[in-house]
Amino acid sequence: MKCNKIIYTICIVLSIALCLGQERIITIGGSVTDIVFELGYGKHVIATDQSSTIPEEVKNLPQVGYIRAISAEGILSLNPSKIITTTDIGPPNVVEQLKNSGVDLYIFDSPYSFKDITLLVKDIASCINKQEDGIKLNNNLLNIHTTLEEIKNQLDAKQKIVFFMNPSIGSFSAAGSKTKADYLIQYLGGENIFANDFNRYSKVTKENIIKHNPDIILVGSTMGKDEETSKSIFYNSKEFKNIKAVMDNNVFSIDMGSHLTFGSSFPKNTLVLLRSILQNDK
Questions:
Q1: Cβ distance 273 to 258 under 8 Å?
Q2: Is 149 inside any structural domain?
Q3: Per-residue pLDDT band at 145 (split at 50, 70, 90)
Q4: Is 143 a member of any domain?
């Protein structure tokens, strides 16, 4: 009996030691989550935020809110050992609560370009002690980036492109300059038709769209609309029937989580989109 008690005690101690040694990470921000999983560290992630939609595995994890409106109580109740996020996190008072909680908090610059993504990969790899994997991942991203640049260099001219967020029949919110969608358009080798009209996002009229006559229309959605529904807003409109993008069947529905997260999957997803656009032009 005494021997059994000793074995039981040892098992308990070992279990506690294992728990203490097991990292419990909360990733806040789609780019961070994407990179942590790509670095092979996803098994340590216990929760994410609503902006984290890739990879597929994250959909089974608890969520702690949206990156710009986080609750400290929801995060700390999960007893994380480490919180990794970007400068998009908010509100400020919650960030202060997290800083004072005693939990390791890492806040890295939010990525807005390919270079920013590679820097974030390097920072996160160092944070989770996966430096070698970080170097390999960045080399892979650079190879994809080089392929994309080579394809763009072969294009005759820049395409006029517009990006709409969750458009409906009577409402069109377009991306202007200083948006991730604007960078996506540039990264595709295109020209944002509203870049010189306004910053951020703004509602535009059908007349404005017709006036600019885009070559390509990108329809981004976060509301779960299927592709055909999103594209039909343009294809089924009599007003848009003479727009070049509609006439050439160049309206593309894209997942905003995949294309505007700016994590490690951004170059690959952009390359796939560019090839789809070029294939459609043949």
A1: no
A2: no
A3: very high
A4: no
Residue 223 covered by a domain: yes
Q: How far is CA 223 from CA 166, 167, 219, 229, 257, in A?
A: 7, 10, 12, 12, 11
pTM of the model: 0.89
Q: How many CB atoms lie within 10 A of CB 46?
A: 18
Q: Are residues 23 and 67 in the same domain?
A: yes
Q: Are residues 64 and 170 in the same domain?
A: no
Whether residue 229 is contained in a domain is answered as: yes
The length of the chain in residues reads: 282
Strands (E), 51-136: 65-66, 69-70, 82-86, 104-108
Range of the domain at 176: 155-281
Peptide bond into 92 cis (omega under 30): no
Encode pLDDT of 42-71 as tens digits: 999 999 999 999 999 999 999 999 999 999
Tell me: do 100 and 162 sit in the same domain.
no
pLDDT of residue 106: 98
Band of residue 228 on the pLDDT scale cut at 50, 70, 90:
confident
Residue 23 CA to chain centroid, in angstroms? Answer: 24
| Contact residues for 128 (Cβ-Cβ < 8 A; gap 6+) | 23, 25, 36, 39, 41, 44, 82, 84
pLDDT of residue 3: 47
Lowest mean pLDDT among 14-23, 45-54, 117-126, 233-242: 14-23
Question: Helix or strand or coil: residue 70?
Answer: strand
How far is the CA of 151 from the CAs of 189, 260, 271, in angstroms? 9, 21, 9
CATH code for the domain in which residue 119 is found: 3.40.50.1980
Q: Which residues pair with 218 in a beta bridge?
A: 163, 252
By 3-state DSSP, what share of the chain in percent is helix, strand and coil, each rounded to 5?
50, 20, 35
Peptide bond connecting 91 to the previous residue in cis, omega within 30 degrees of 0: yes
Distance, C-alpha 64 to centroid of its chain: 17
